[in-house]
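debug: dumping io for the single-chain case to check the tokenizer round-trip. Nothing else runs in this session.
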Amino acid sequence: MGKGQRAVQAFRSTEFIEKPRDRDGLVLGGNPFKDAPSTSASLLSEKSAVLLSEKSASPAVVPTVSKEVIEAGLKDEPSELESVPTFILVTTYLSFLMLILFAHARDFVGKLVSPEQYVQLREQNGYAPMVSDFESLWTRRLYGRIRDCFNRPITGVAGGRVNLLERVSHDFNTTFEFTGRIRNVLNLASYNYLGFAQSHGPCADKVEEAMREHGITQASSRVEAGRSKLLVETEDMVARFMGTESALIVSMGYATNALNIPSLVSKGCLIISDELNHSSLVSGARLSGAAIRVFRHNNARDLEKQLRRSISQGQPRTHRPWKKIIVVVEGLYSMEGEFCKLPEIIELRRKYRFYLFVDEAHSVGALGKRGRGICDHFNVDPREVDILMGTFTKSFGAAGGYIAGSKALIDYLRLHSHSAVYAEAMSVPVLAQVSSSMRMIMGEDREHALEGQQRLDQLALNSRYFARRLAEMGFMTMGDPGSPVIPLLLFSPAKIPAFSRECLKRNIAVVVVSYPATPIITGRVRFCISASHTREDLDHALEQISEIGDLLMLKFHKDKVQPQHLKAE
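debug: decoded output
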């Protein structure tokens, strides 16, 4: 048997898929990747690896998805926010009202008893305060009391488990002191969808090799001395991965939106944005000087109304036609765990001829049979989307972001975008991490051709299993099936910090979110699922979360769940 034949046999191996699994398809016990084949080769050539280009790849060389993932995908249903009991809504509003009233009362008494503590909120030497006492009330009186639930310091890599630096406060979270102890906790808080956040393994080895060969950084912007062979090769790989003609890499994810949108639109243009878009998209839209209109979240019908009104009326006062109309959406909304309705938006794009900007920060690498994001998930040709944006922080264990699209678009951005002209070029270690992890997902790493697809399968299975078990326990969750971000609604402001602290007591790290990041009545906890989580990790977390749910009375749908579903499987 020749070398090429051995490579084919290894690539088509079912060794990983045939491991012992439960009825949800999860690997029973251990690290799902430690026994993966280490000597397999990829047969993908440069030409055949181009995805959804004018000459698309042959189906024979595209990695297949496990049977469990395909069957689970057939059961997808539209995600809708479940009906909330009226009693829960009323008590939530009353709780916030009481908190605000007590906060104002404390401020009133405090200004009389200890005026020196409010100096920064008073006029000084003829200068007005930076913020008024009313504007800072939320931060000082509400957020400050639960600050121990946020910004917890860690050390080491935030993988499936993470080392947390223990801290205490003796002044109601005004200041903190480190105890010197380190706690190893289960990590359900970090965006590490495919488990590439590792300090060892093939990606870490590639990073070390790249640093020895290329150094650390070019210490310059791209247009001066920051353009390198490694940067150009990685950009070409991103373009092939996304199925576009070209791509531009930016060293900071937030800046990928905030600095590139102003280069695409300006005064006389119109941006139509989803009401729940990320703040980086909002910042970029505001910096551009273009007119901004908002449509209801994930509502294609309302988007069409905005388009018809905008096209028919034109610009304000002059009623001249808009120079450009660009619709901005996200592939996966991380606060809601919902997918954008891309097929419906594509139909509107064909009808009204606007430009479409899709932010795939959370969906690239995490969605789709091949991890190509929301286009892959809905089987949409990437060429139907004018601008594809994404980041390398969530699925690739790196940093920064990219813009992918036509060659003319990317060439224009390289000359006009502040991220290319003024910002520093991406450093060598980060480029090596992006390149190595992406090659693994694409099956181009000869020594680890199977591992990328294994991670994609494991993430899809973990996400569906965790969400299903939470629903069976009676919790009220949000999001679409298969989303790696699973929000669980807490509602009451008192339950938000209580849930976080109870999880920490049980050595589980979670992220709780409340107003103003969410509507005031839908405070929630977001569970971030990773391919690095094993069945034991998930079952342990579910058992502890169930106990906390009983303690805090969070199982709003418990009466609707059949008793046998509440038993451990």
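debug: round-trip ok. DSSP finds 19 helices and 16 strands in the chain.
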